[in-house]
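re the bet — no i am not wrong, look at it urself. input seq straight from the record:
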Amino acid sequence: MSDDRWIWQCNRMIPSDAVAGRRVLDTVLRQLESHNWDRRDVFGVHLAMEEALVNAIIHGNHLDPGKKVTVRCRIAPDLVRIEITDQGEGFSSGKVPDPTSPNRLGSPSGRGVMLMKAFMSRVQFNATGNSVTLEKDRRTSP
C-alpha cells in the first residue's frame, strides 16, 4: 500500500511501562473514532493492541526500564495497521498453547494471542517473535 493512502500515521518509541502503553493506545483509538470507525471495530483494535502492548512490555521487555517498545501505526479509511516491536528475545508464536483446550482453561497463558487473532483481520509475528503486525480491514469485518 502506498504511503499516500494513509490518513494518519505515528511512530513512537515508548518506555517499558503500562502508562506509556496506555497513552499511545488512547491516541490510536481517538484517531479511529475521529475517522468514523465503527464502535465494534474500535473495540476490537483496542483489545488486540492492548494485548500486544502488554505482551511487549511485560513478556518481551520484562518491564526493563532500559528497553523500549516501538509502536508504528497507520490508518487508512478502511484499514488500520499497527506494528509493535519489543527488545526482548522473542518467542515462537506457533508454540503458544491453545488456551481453549480442556487442560488449559484455568491458565491465562496464550489468551492474548488468541484475542488478537479473534478481533483482527490479520496477525503476523516476525521470525524472531519480538514484533507483531496487527491489521483490521473494515471491508472484511463481519
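see?? Strands lie at 8-15, 68-75, 79-85, 122-125, 131-137. told u. also The chain has one domain: 3-137. so pay up
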